[in-house]
Each structure stands twice: as structure tokens, then as C-alpha cells.
Amino acid sequence: MESPTPLTENDLLDLDAHWRALNYLAAGQIYLTGNPLLTEELRPEHIKPRLLGHWGTCPGLNLVYTHVNRVISTHGQETVCVWGPGHGGPSVFAGAWLEGTYGELNPDVGRDAAGMGRLFQQFSFPGGVPSHAAPNVPGSFHEGGELGYSLAHAYGAALDNPDLLVACVIGDGEAETGPLAASWHANKFLDPAHDGAVLPILHLNGYKIANPTVLARLDEDELDALLRGYGHEPLYVTGSDPAQVHRDMAAAMDTALLRIHEAQRAAREGEERARPRWPMIVLRTPKGWTGPDEVDGAPVEGTWRAHQVPLSGVRDNPDHLRQLEGWLRSYAPGELFDGEGRPVDRVLACVPDGDRRLGSSPHANGGRLVRTLPLPDPEKYAVPVDKPGTRMHEPTRVLGGLLRDLMERTADRRDFRLFGPDETASNRLQDVYDATDKAWQARTEPTDEHLGRHGRVMEVLSEHLCQGWLEGYVLSGRHGLFSSYEAFAHIVSSMASQHVKWLQSARDIPWRVPVAGLNYLLTSHVWRQDHNGFSHQDPGFVDHILNKDPHTVRVYLPPDTNSLLCVADHVLRTRDVVNVVVAGKQPCFDWLDIEQARAHCARGAGIWEWAGTEQPGSRPEVVLACAGDVPTQETLAAASLLRTHLPELSVRVVNVVDMTRLQPNEEHPHGLTEREFEALLPRDVPVIFAYHGYPWLVHRLTYRRAVHPNLHVRGYKEMGTTTTPFDMVVTNDLDRYRLVMDVIDRVPGLAVRATGVRQEMADVRQRHHAWIREHGTDLPEVEEWSWPGDGR
To answer: Which part of the chain is the Xylulose 5-phosphate/Fructose 6-phosphate phosphoketolase N-terminal domain (predicted)?
Structure first.
């Protein structure tokens, strides 16, 4: 593109007309339920009974919408917007309606007076639409209700989208959050050769709900130093005179685009240059700009009082009603819309066509772009299992081979990435480095390994940033996997909730096309964090996820390596769900060959006949159930002890991979019917359930099942320390000896005739405590244990 040229007077009038129309539509949504074009005097019955909304941020967002339209129309720049300020919905709804996309997707809200009336009436109204840029809003893939994630989402959308510009409006209140502060560093990972660009627009309107914002009160030189220190070249647009602000904003946008294109051209033509210092815009305009100057003698525009509803008493206070009417008429709606309520040509002069419109961009409706991954067959990576429980592998290390080959298969299409907080190798996934590097644009040293400008492994020690990148990447039409230590997935619990809510809401919107599943691999888990200790031991992310919409969440606990391969193959094919996979990285026993693993994972829960002692056609006297790799090992070890000490006891072993199978089918689409459930866990048989996480989750999932009174769950009891692996399970009463004691305590008649066996189990536990304190290792019979049966 050529150097920026000043706006002509006609350009200025066109832009101002579009901006005024947006301001009118935004204010109308907050206040009006009738008389949308002010064709008659405003009366109380035209006002909504409950005034909800946030006016203060709207004029700035509207200005950005107008000027991004100009950039698209003038320069042909493919663009999508992320609207960070909370409750900015009126502006984005207004922009989508004005450009026509909203009416195309919702024909009853067309671009005429009747459609405008419905646009106004539905906003923050029962049965209507929310006040955020929610899935209802065309062109949005970021809701903006919970603050802090806009810039991370923007960079996620830009990754592997070389022709895309992502404009990201950051509210100055949002800029105070920790996730946003970390997101400034995302520019060190953006590859100008293969990625698109992000244009941050820091909107300093000065106030939050009731307080000034930190960045708005910094001296200019301090703010400039901060932003330059983050690696940006800031461009400043400041003022309250609309004409001058329009000229300055147009110049800033053109200059930013020129600098972006030059950085991309140099990288794509192979020029050796230092990391780009990407442009950004600092937009400083009054809060509630063009709204009431003051209300009841108190200043409003440019203060915190403009944050929500500047005039709150318009139904009851005639002065407020007249002031509102004057405010709305100041935009001259009669000049902006014709007699039928349609926007006049001048208002639409800057609006692009077709899918170039912000509300119609396929990058904001990523299901339109998503392609099926070319997944390799898990059988290629399967470990041989001649007999269960005799050999060990590191499940995530084996999975790393599959992910490496997936990286190779997507090298040209670049639509799969691996995200994680500095733990890819720690989590045994380092084989991916044979196919791609870690993304890195900053300086490198000779001792660095696997850093590259074009890498597709994203590592940064901010779980918020990893999560935000992945969300933006998936929502704009690509695939990814987030690998994390299990305990620290909690850091992004709130972000995960917001993503689930987005998917849940989007499912009910017919024009939203399903996107790829968002996948977590939680490893370095609670039972093998014995070296790091109590601070690293927390399996509760699963509990958090399973509180969410059952149509959107899935949790898998594969018991061994081949099961993990099958689960990974499944989750990487899913759409519109959040998948949590919990699997260890330490050596664990191989129980199932690949075909058995496929069948078992497809069932989600099943009986391992080879591990139990029940005879065909008979009922078990006790069921040993398990979920998770370490609980499975302890359950199998307990079953082996029962074979030795109580060979006449009929024992069934059940393993659960998909935790949602425990729920009734009426509560979760993966849930078992009561008949299916009782075929695994009969109602009148004691069930000892060894579970990976907090025991009460299993109780919650099964509380309606007939077997629940006979269900006893062992799991993590928030007892941890730096200790031996087996001592972790002993400390939490999940060990094999405790499970045998539980069987004796709960099977009718065993408490009397198996007293000696119970005492022997208790004695081993005591011997264990003494042994580890003397030797620092686990008991030899534990360390050297393997499955003794024939396995079939």
C-alpha cells in the first residue's frame, strides 16, 4: 500500500455519518422499546422498563468499527475484530445491523424501521440478546464479558492466518488484568512470514465502573515507555473533536497497516531482519463521548458516571426524558436513515461488501473454515501387549510420536498447534520437535534448543496466554492441544468456563458452524507429583469442567498407553466440545493391546474379565471399579491380592475411561441407561471405586444410581507431600492393601472369616511407613510388582 493520504472532506462526512449512526443505534438499544426513528415526541412508554447496558465504551468502539470498515474498503485488507471492553455489545450489534449481516442472519431484524425497532427491543431484554459481544453477534468470536483475554484471542486468530489483520480493542480497565498484561508478550511469538498481524487498539477513556484506570493516569512518557518496552511502536489518537479524531484515526490506521505490510513483505521475501516492532494505536477519547455532558448538575461525559446508563430516570423524570430525546436527536437520525428506516448511501459508503464485512468474516465463524485433521492411525504407535501388566511405557511419550507425525502432515496447511507452559518436553511430548520448532521471534543463544521463527509449538510460562491463544486459534477455524501439569490447569478454570459457555450458546444459533474441540492433556498428575510435593497435587480441574453444560464437556482417563492413543484420536476429531484427557507421563503398565483399547475406549467403561474371578453366568460378590492410570494399577494389584488370599471370592473388575458414562443418560449424552449401568455395577453388590481425583465427584455423578448406597469411593483426599510414589496412594488410602481391607469390610460375611487377611494388609501398610523412612524407596514387593495372571 502507498503512504497514508489525508481524508478528503467527503471522506470525512461519510465516516462521521457512519459513526453517528452507530452511536444512535447503540444508545437506542440501551433505552428504546418503541419509536425507533423518533418520528414522534419521545414518551415514557417508548422507554424500556429496565434500563440495562453500558454506554461509556460505545462511542470509542463505534469509532473503531467505522475506521476498520474504511481500511477494509480502501485497502482490501481482510480483517476481523476482537472487542475487549466488557458489555460492548450495543456497538457490535449496531455495526452488524448497519452493514446488513445481522438482518441477513436474522430476517426479522432487517435494515428498516421495523427491524431497527426489534434491534432496540431485544437488547438486554427477556428472550432477547445479552449485552456482550456474545455468539449472537455476527463477527464476534470473543465475548468480552470476563475481562483480560482479548489480546490473547486476537493473537490466536492471527496464527497461521497470513493475510488476516486482527484489530483488537483493549479497554483500559481490561488492561489492568493479569492475563492481558501477559498478552503484550505475544508479539514475540508472531511469525510475520506465516502468521497474520494483530493491531492492538488501547482505548483509554479513563474510567472503569467507579474509578479511574491505571494506564489512563500514567504520564505520557511513562505510558509510551511501557508500550515500547513491550515491543510496540505506539501511534496516538487523542481528542474530543470528532472531525479531528476521524482524521487522526484514519492516518494512524493507514500508518499501522503500512508498517505491518512492510514487516510481512520483508519476512516473506527472506530478508534478514530483527524481530518487528509491531504498531499499535492508543486511542484516548472521553468516556461516554457525545452523550450527556451532565445530569442533575453532575458531570457525566468524560467521567465514571458515563459507564453504564447516564440517564436512569427517563420513565419517571420528564427532565431526563427530554434530555434523552435531545441526546438522540443530536445524531440527526433523519439524515442517517430514510423514511423507511434504511441507512442512506452516505452512512454505508465505508462499509465493505460480502464476507469482507466484519459481521460476515468466516474467521469469526471458524466452523466455516475448519478442515478434518489428517490424523495418523493410532495402531502405528501402539505398544505390543502380549500379556497385560507385564511391561511399562510412558503414555505421553508414545503420544508424542503421533503428534509429531500430525505436525508433519499439517506442515503445509498449518492448522494444528501444540500449546503449553514451558512443559512440552517435561510432559514427554518432545518428539514433536522432530517436525517443528517452538515458535520464537526474540534473540537466540547457542545453547538454545528447538527455537525457530516458524515453529508451531507455542510455549510461554503463562497458562492464560496458552489458553487464550488456543481459544482464538480454534474459534477461527483450526485445531490444537493444550498440554499442562494437572494442578495448574486451575489457573485457566475461568477461561475454560467462558469457552464452554460460548460453545453452549453458539449451539443454539443456527448460523454458527461447529468448531474443533478444545483439547486439554493434563499430565504430570496428582499421583506422580511426589517429587514436587503438595503444591503440585490437585486433580480438581475435572470437577470444575464436569459442572458445565453436559452437551459440551467430556472427561477421559485412559488407563494405559494404547488407551491414550485411542482417546487422543477421538478428541482430535470432535466438534463444539471441551475435552479433558488425564494421563500420566511416568512409566505405567500396559493393560490392553490396541484393538482392545479401541473397543474399551469406544465403550467408555467396561468389565475386564481377565482381571476378575467371577464365573460366567454368576453375579460377583464385589466389584472393584477404577478410573485413572494409578488407580487402575492399585485396583489390579488389589485384585491380585484377593486371588491369592481369598480365591473363592467372586470379584469383578470394571474400568472407566469416560467419566461421563457414570451419569444417567438423561443428564449427559454419554451417560449410561440404568440397565447398562447395572450390567457393570449391580445395585446389590458392594462397589469399591478407586478414582483418580476427589472421591465426591464419583458420588455426585452416581447419586441417582441404585448402587449408590453400596458405593464406596477412594481417591485423593488433599493429603500430599514430597514422598515416594506408593506413599502418595497410601497417604490417601487409595493403595492396594487399603482396597483389599475395604472389600473385607463391605462384603457380607468376610469381616469374620477374613480377619487374618485384613490384619495382614494393615501390617503391610505399617511396614511400608517404616520402610520408606529408612530406605527412601517403596517396598520391594510394590516396586517389583507386575500382573501375575495369564491375562486372558
So the answer is: 7-368
